[in-house]
Amino acid sequence: MFSFKQFSIQQDRCAMKIGTDGVLLGAWAPLENQPFSILDIGTGTGLIALMLAQRSHAEQIDALEIDEEAYEQSVDNFENSPWSDRLFCFHAGLDEFVEEPEDEYDLIVSNPPFYTDEYKSDNEQRDLARFADAMPFEDLIEAADLLLSENGIFAVIIPYKEEQNFLALAAAFELYPLKITRVKGTPTTEIKRSLLAFSRNESMNFPVDELIIETARHIYTPEYIALTKDFYLKM
């Protein structure tokens, strides 16, 4: 059990446990378009969908999860949250989900699997949760283009080394950066992650900034505290 300020998450049946990436995206994803409907692609424990339920007034928050154990766990986590009436999880792959899209979404978020072949382990469930071949970036972006409302926002967290590739793929679908935040663990380490938000409207002067998580072990920066304090119990 992992407890946040307003909800708790069981994660014993999920291959991918709660990590900083998911918390970052759930806290960072832009809500300035005041979304009515939200979709979390590859929800895992349901963490990001739950964070967005806490942060927004969206009336429809759907999640998508292909792994059966993770799907069942996210459903339980949704039902045990204060926002169970607004949260719904589909047990399906992205390819199935986009075949007959019924809704458009004002915000689409994803913390996609992104390890390459050399990281493959003997645990198929964990590999499915972690690997880009389970959900290639191109498939994810194509789905976002299909499912995103006219004024919708698409937000992801990916490895920094994939940023240029992802931006190029998104541009091919006429999805343009709205905001980019690059994440470093400490002031002296390399940039590790990119938080990217896209919209259908091309903007030349979108904000690009950097977020440092901690200055020393468990000494968090004011920026990281400001971003996550509504969620972590000790922030």
Automatic annotation (TrEMBL):
Its EC number is 2.1.1.223. The keyword Cell membrane does not apply. Pfam families: MTS. It is found in: Cytoplasm. Its main location: cytoplasm. Keywords: Cytoplasm, Methyltransferase, S-adenosyl-L-methionine, Transferase, tRNA processing. Residues 37-124 form the Methyltransferase small domain. Transmembrane segments: none annotated. GO terms for cellular component: cytoplasm. GO terms for biological process: methylation; tRNA processing. SUPFAM superfamilies: S-adenosyl-L-methionine-dependent methyltransferases. CDD domains: AdoMet_MTases. The keyword Transcription regulation does not apply. InterPro entries: DNA_methylase_N6_adenine_CS (IPR002052), SAM-dependent_MTases_sf (IPR029063), Small_mtfrase_dom (IPR007848), tRNA_Adenine-N(6)_MTase (IPR050210), tRNA_adenine-N6_MeTrfase (IPR022882). It is an enzyme of class 2 (transferase). GO terms for molecular function: nucleic acid binding; tRNA (adenine-N6)-methyltransferase activity. PROSITE patterns: N6_MTASE. It catalyses: adenosine(37) in tRNA1(Val) + S-adenosyl-L-methionine = N(6)-methyladenosine(37) in tRNA1(Val) + S-adenosyl-L-homocysteine + H(+). HAMAP family: tRNA_methyltr_YfiC (MF_01872). Specifically methylates the adenine in position 37 of tRNA(1)(Val) (anticodon cmo5UAC). Belongs to the methyltransferase superfamily. tRNA (adenine-N(6)-)-methyltransferase family. This is tRNA1(Val) (adenine(37)-N6)-methyltransferase.
